[in-house]
Design brief:
Helix 2 packs antiparallel against helix 11, helix 9 runs antiparallel to helix 13 and helix 12 packs across helix 14. Helices cover 78% and strands 0% of the residues. The protein is mostly helical. The protein is globular.
Length: 415
């Protein structure tokens, strides 16, 4: 009697998801314990710590869900190959908008009170309600009517987008940043030794300094230097988008030859972007101060950015592999990089403008902030329009998948 052959792709993904879930669970547990200690000792941002702990805990739940569906494929269950249908309906749009506004308002009032225990109790759950539903809604709008492929592959893409993809991106970005810093120090040491020694002295002076205002006042003149600003913009607005838009849809690259159509590639790219947006937004929202409502509200824009950009790249990847249209991939990739780069440039400009007053240039705040906000608003509207237009165009080219085959002992490869 023959036994079913081990499906190695799903098994390998299963191992990755298991390791990822275990690691994230440990991080969640550690942050939670530290937050509880901080609440009773009145040290640090206990509410921010609990927000991060609950965020990581929520991510563990999603990874466990992904693990279960991939496990079905590893075990050879027929339902693993059934087409996945995302549970989204148009009525959810109004409901989600209402929930987000209500949660943001309640959270804003709670954060404004600056009562530690009150923030500790309410802000973690309210953060989830503000961050998660918009991602759900945007994915539903962007993929409405598009076949999402087998269940196990859908959850493989989601799980890999929350584990391996971000990890590889972070490694590359750190390596690149270290290289830029080392190159900068070498340049200063050779070409501008006086400035180099000045920076060394400043570093030694600030090593034991805890006053954030003093630190900011000390480094502001150097940050505002035109060469530093140009380097910062080059890294954040050019190099980082190039790395992220190439690696965010990592799972789409892995499954490129098995994804049925460019439309499905767009959907899987959006799913990769949603996974990254969820991870980034939840972890970036770990702030229990009065600025909480501003931080979580901005994350909606970044979620739209990641999902739209990755959707375009996913469409381009599958077009290149399935239809041999490499030009389409490069057009999609560089469009995504441009969108991401402009968004990041606006964010960098807004951040740098806040130090203008410290260096005698208060006009920066009034000149740059409005331009940056207007730019991000226009870009956000444009990305949403691209999302809807892409869905309407790609929805007309839906591929009806065949009934899932029953695996045999001789079956090989990723399905």
């Amino acid at each position: 009697m023959q036994t079913k052959k081990t499906h190695w792709p799903s098994l390998l993904i299963l191992i990755v998801l298991g390791i990822g879930a275990a690691f994230v669970l440990l991080v969640s547990f550690g942050l939670g314990i530290n937050s509880i200690i901080g609440l009773f000792t009145d040290e640090g941002d206990s509410a921010g710590g609990m927000i991060s702990s609950i965020a990581f805990g929520f991510e563990v739940i999603i990874l466990i869900l992904c693990f279960w569906f991939v496990l079905q494929k590893t075990m050879g269950r027929e339902q693993a190959d059934h087409s996945f249908k995302f549970p989204f309906a148009s009525w959810q749009i109004i409901a989600i908008i209402g929930v987000v506004i209500f949660a943001a308002a309640i959270g804003g009032v709670t954060a404004y009170t600056e009562i530690a225990w009150l923030n500790w109790i309410f802000l973690p759950a309210l953060t989830l309600l503000v961050i998660v539903p918009p991602i759900w809604m945007l994915f539903g709008i962007g993929t409405n009517g598009i076949d999402l492929g087998p269940r196990w592959r859908f959850f493989s893409v989601l799980g890999l987008g929350m584990t391996v993809g971000p990890l590889i991106m972070i490694i590359f970005e750190i390596i690149l940043l270290v290289f830029i810093i080392i190159a900068g120090f070498i340049y200063l040491a050779v070409q501008k030794p006086d400035l180099f020694q000045e920076l060394i002295n400043l570093t030694q002076e600030l090593q034991n300094e805890t006053d954030q205002d003093f630190i900011l006042n000390s480094v502001a003149p150097y940050i505002a230097n035109s060469a530093v600003v140009a380097t910062l913009l080059g890294y954040i607005a050019v190099l980082v988008p190039m790395i992220e838009e190439l690696l965010k849809p990592l799972a789409v690259w892995i499954f490129a030859k098995k994804i049925e159509s460019p439309a499905q590639g767009f959907a899987m790219g959006m799913l990769s972007g949603a996974a990254f947006a969820l991870l980034e937004s939840l972890n970036a929202s770990g702030d229990g101060s009065a600025s909480w409502p501003v931080i979580v509200s901005i994350r909606a824009g970044t979620s739209l950015l990641h999902m739209t950009a990755s959707g375009l790249v996913g469409w381009g990847i599958v077009s290149a592999f399935r239809e041999k249209k490499a030009v389409r991939f490069f057009a999609a990739y560089f469009s995504a990089v441009a969108i991401h780069g402009i968004w990041n440039a606006c964010a960098v400009g807004a951040g740098i403008s806040t130090i203008g007053e410290l260096i005698g240039k208060p006009e920066w705040l009034f000149n740059i902030i409005p331009a940056a906000l207007c730019g991000m608003t226009v870009l956000g509207i444009g990305m949403f329009a691209v999302l809807i237009a892409s869905n309407r165009k790609l929805g007309n080219a839906i591929v009806t998948p065949p009934n899932p085959p029953i695996e045999t002992a001789n079956e090989e490869g990723v399905k």
